[in-house]
Structure formats: structure tokens, C-alpha cells
Specification:
alpha/beta, Rossmann fold, 2 domains, 7-stranded mixed beta sheet, 6-stranded parallel beta sheet, 16 strands
């Protein structure tokens, strides 16, 4: 049996197309999922435009934000059965003996390979995933919301585990994409005052940020950053896909403040980072997530404390992937979702 798949087939701009692929074989410790919905990530778009900075195993099926039902289980899989509603983590291949994996931080295992770049992802009807990656989702959480668990986990890990926000902190988020807005939403749950910053072309996406109780700013955020005591914001979350925004973050952060870098930017910096020294600022990277983050986020989604409905800009059939990608790439929507069947 073959199914249509969105395949990134070469390291060049636009090298993505629909191809028919065979139903995946599963190993003893794997399950086969029938994909219900799959979110389009900025990394999928970066691979489409060849603007990424990570190694890709071409050709590869895109997609790592997905929900679905189990349709088959490997012979050594326990605790899962056909029909279970699930989402899957992204760390498809890890080294269990790596020191990071042994401490539960397998997301930081240097040999880690994820869906959509290292192994085939979920922009197709069926995807094979290790049973260790699965999380059960409750009946009250719709599949089209559950497929966005992964970007919510990126935001939760960044804001809660790496930014260590406190109630009353003033936070500026640079970049009103999916991760930026979700970081802002989680920061609001932590009790922070939040402003989200974008460009003139981002007005539509910034209006989504306002639905989460954030202030929307176009252009220069210096006035907002310094409005409390003239020193700057407590934390700057850089969620833009450009290296240059780090310079803006250094200008906006207060002395002894915190800059959290969650957006990818492959460009060389080309400017001094001495302000980090002068201001005694902490620069923190944040990458991916692990099991306890997923469990916490699923609970937040199921109870409605974290609502992803505002960021969903549309759901397209797999055959219309190009429109879904374009809508996000042009900033017309925050998040596109594909429905394989």
C-alpha cells in the first residue's frame, strides 16, 4: 500500500513535492500511527526554502508535529493498543547510553535524529514511531489541537525550564510566529507582562498575540521595555528566524537580565556581543523538550489553560501543502495544519 507524502528531496530551494511512498515497516519496539493532523513548522519551511542550518537525510518526509491513532504495534510493545489516541515526541533516534539521555535530557543527545529531517516524518498517512515517544491524549482534546503539542512543548521548555520567569516580570518576545506567540502565551500563564514585537507585515499575527493578553508592538520596543524604571525588560525571548535580532535583544534587556534564544538564525552575527558583558546578562539557548514537558503540556491543552485555537490559521488537505506553506511563509497565518486523510 502506498500513500501520498510531502517529501523534501534535495538541498536546494523549493525541493519539496508530493510523492507516493510505501507504508512504513515497524520494528519490535515501534508502533504504526495513522496520522490525523500534522502541523507545519517553521523548520519545514526552512527546509523548503533551503534556509536551514541542520543536516537533513534526503529524501525525507517532512512533518514532526502530529497526532493520530495506533493501527499496529511491534511485538515487544507493551501498554499500547490499536485505536489509542496519541501524540509523539520528535526524538525518533537517540543513543540511550549517551550521558544526556541517561539523565533524561535525550533532547540534547548530540546523536539525536528527529522526524522530518533525520527520519521520515508525518506529512503522509502513516508514520512509524518508537513506542517510547508516545503520549496518550484524552478524548476531550481534539486531534487538530493535539497535533500542536510539540510547538507548545518547545515554548513551555523555553519559558518555564530555561527562562525561569516570575510573576510580574516584564517580557518582550521578538517574532510573532508560532513559537513566539506560544512563548508569549506561556509567559502570561507564568504571570508576566508580555509584549510581542514584529514588523508592519506582522499586523495580523500580532493581533493573535493580543488575544493572549499581550501588547502588540510594531518596530521599536524600547519605550515599552524602559517604561517601568528606564532600565529595560527582565527577559527578552528571541523567537525570530534571524541572527540579527540578538542585537535588538541586547539593547532591550535590563542589566542582570535574561535573553532566551529559541529562534534559529544561521547568519553570522557581524556585531559585538560586549553588551552581554557590560550588562551582566545571561544568554540562554533552548532546544526541544522531554517527557515531563509533554505530560504537563497535554494537561494544559486538555484543561484549556493553554488554548491553541487562536493560532490555527487553517487546515488544508495534504495535496494542498504548497498553499499551507505559503500562508505561513508570507505571515498570513500563524500556523497551518495539514490533514493527510
Amino acid at each position: 500500500m502506498k500513500s501520498a507524502a510531502v517529501v523534501n528531496y534535495a538541498p536546494q530551494e523549493g525541493a519539496v513535492e508530493i510523492r507516493d511512498i510505501a507504508r512504513p515497516e515497524i520494528g519490535e519496539e515501534d508502533v504504526l500511527l495513522e496520522v490525523a493532523y500534522v502541523g507545519v513548522c517553521g523548520s519545514d519551511i526552512h527546509q523548503w526554502t533551503n534556509g536551514h542550518s541542520w543536516v537533513v537525510n534526503y529524501p525525507v518526509v517532512l512533518g514532526h508535529e502530529f497526532s493520530g491513532r495506533i493501527v499496529a504495534t511491534g511485538s515487544r510493545v507493551k501498554g499500547w493498543k490499536e485505536g489509542d489516541r496519541v501524540v509523539s515526541e520528535t526524538a525518533a533516534i537517540i543513543d540511550p547510553d549517551n550521558p544526556m539521555s541517561r539523565t533524561g535530557l535525550y533532547n540534547l543527545d548530540p546523536t539525536r535524529k528527529g522526524f522530518g529531517y533525520g527520519v521520515n516524518g508525518a506529512m503522509t498517512r502513516y508514520v512509524s514511531t518508537p513506542a517510547r515517544c508516545l503520549h496518550r491524549i484524552p478524548d476531550e482534546l481534539p486531534f487538530e489541537h493535539a497535533c500542536l503539542t510539540e510547538p507548545c512543548c518547545v515554548a513551555y521548555n523555553a519559558v518555564v525550564n530555561n527562562a525561569h520567569l516570575k510573576p510580574g516580570d516584564r517580557v518582550i518576545v521578538l517574532g510573532p510566529g508560532t513559537i513566539g506567540i506560544l512563548c508569549a502565551a506561556v509567559a502570561r500563564l507564568c504571570g508576566a507582562e508580555v509584549a510581542v514585537v514584529g514588523l508592519e507585515a506582522d499586523r495580523g499575527r500580532l493581533s493573535i498575540a493580543e488575544q493572549y493578553g499581550c501588547e502588540a508592538i510594531i518596530g521599536n520596543a524600547s519605550e515599552w521595555a524602559k517604561s517601568r524604571d528606564g532600565l529595560g525588560a527582565d527577559c527578552i525571548i528571541d523567537a525570530a528566524g534571524s541572527s540579527a535580532t540578538l542585537r535588538i535583544a541586547m539593547d532591550l534587556v535590563r542589566p542582570n537580565g535574561h535573553i532566551l534564544k529559541v529562534g534559529w538564525g544561521p547568519q553570522p552575527l557581524g556585531f559585538s556581543i560586549d553588551p552581554l558583558v557590560q550588562k551582566n546578562v545571561t544568554l540562554q539557548g533552548s532546544f526541544s523538550h522531554n517527557w515531563p514537558v509533554w505530560e504537563r503540556v497535554i494537561s494544559l491543552l486538555a484543561t484549556g489553560w493553554l488554548d491553541v485555537k487562536p493560532i490555527i490559521g487553517g487546515i488544508w488537505p495534504l495535496s494542498d501543502w504548497h498553499t499551507a506553506f505559503e500562508k505561513m511563509h508570507k505571515g498570513e497565518v500563524v500556523k497551518s495544519i495539514l490533514k493527510p486523510i
